[in-house]
Amino acid sequence: MASLTPSRACRESVPPPAAGARPMTLPRQTRAPSAADVAVGGRIRALRCAAGRTQKQLAVHVGATDAQLHRYEAGISRVAAGRLMAIAEALDVRVEDLLTEPAPGAVPATPHAEEFANLARAFAAIADARHRAALVSLANTMAGAAAPAEAQP
Fold it and tell me: d(Cα 125, Cα 12) in Å, to the nearest integer?
C-alpha cells in the first residue's frame, strides 16, 4: 500500500516561504453568473419560445419552478449540468445547442418562431382533413412552391 506522505522529491521541489512573506492566497471564487451563464440563459429562452412553450410548461417538464427557470433565462442563476441536460431533452435540442452560439449568418430553424408556433397550434386544431389540405395548398401557393402530390384532396 502506498504511503500518503509526500515523497522526498515533492518536499524538496517546493521552496520554503521567505521569512516574513505572506502566504499565497488564491483569488476568491465567486458563484455569481458569468457572461457565459447569461448567454446560455438567453439561448434557453430563445429555444423555449421557438418551441412555443411557456416558462411554466418547461419548468414542470424539467422539475424546476417557473421562478427558477426565469432565473436561468435571465442569467441570474447558473444552470447545473444535469438540469441543462433535462432542458435540452425537453426542448428536443442537443446540449451543445444551449452552450454554443449559432454560427454567424446562420438561419434559425424557425425564423419566425412565435408565428410558426401559433400557426402550428391553429393547424392542429383543424378537425377537417380537407380544410387542412386546403390550408397546406394555400401556404404552398403563397410561398411560391408547388404543392406535394400527397397533399392534394
Answer: 76
